[in-house]
Amino acid sequence: MRLVRSTLLIVAGLALGACGGGKMMAESSMPFGGNDSVQYAGQLWKALQAAGMLGDNAVMSKPYKGQHPHGAVLDTIEGPVKVGGHRGVAIVKRNYGGDNVSTASVATNPGAFLKAVTVMYKRERGYDSDNNDWFWAKYLADGTLDKNPAGMQLAGRVAKGKPAGCIACHKAAPGSDMVFNHDRHR
Ligand code: HEC
Predict the structure, then answer these.
(1) pTM of the predicted model as reported, rounded to 2 decimal places
(2) For ligand 1, which residues put their CB under 6 angstroms from it?
(3) Residue ranges per domain, the chain?
(4) For position 186, what pLDDT does the model report?
């Protein structure tokens, strides 16, 4: 058993070595944080701005009190968004915090309290059939991607196969759609 395992490790090591120490690993074998995911997240951010779902005059819901790991106060909206040739629903949750944060202060001046934006975007069928084809991203208020403690950017199938992270936690949402706030079927 041990022999088999170390042989496998050597084979895997050779395969990685052959393509530049894993740097050029295919995106499909990298669930999140790779170039394709990061670029896609950039396109998605622009598409959300164009759709009026982000920015100073963005549509917003009535702010509500949040729970960990999302912010102290949140607002969540959703709507169809086009990225490249694909049209899918985007659920955008803005996470607010800071001194004097409250549902009232956020309603009055959302921009002053915005800390992060977490997005679920329904991609084309087959993108991640294990997880309802959701693309996950966590941006800071300025649109740059947030990172996990290992320095990986939070965009793509975050963190598929890991015990914690967007996918692991959202799997517990009722209705097997990975959405907590309501059930949705594509
Ligand atoms: C530890 C559990 C947990 C983790 C990790 C988590 N979420 Fe959530 N998320 C929730 C809960 C609970 C809700 C519903 C309550 C609310 O609105 O905060 C929610 C709501 C959302 C919503 C609104 C749609 C819905 O499901 O109701 C979005 C979008 C979202 N999360 C994105 C993300 C992204 C992107 C990540 C990873 C960067 C993430 N979440 C990580 C628990 C989690």
Answers:
(1) 0.86
(2) 66-67, 69-70, 74, 76, 91, 93, 118-120, 136-138, 154, 158, 165-166, 169-170, 173, 179-181
(3) 1-26, 31-176
(4) 57
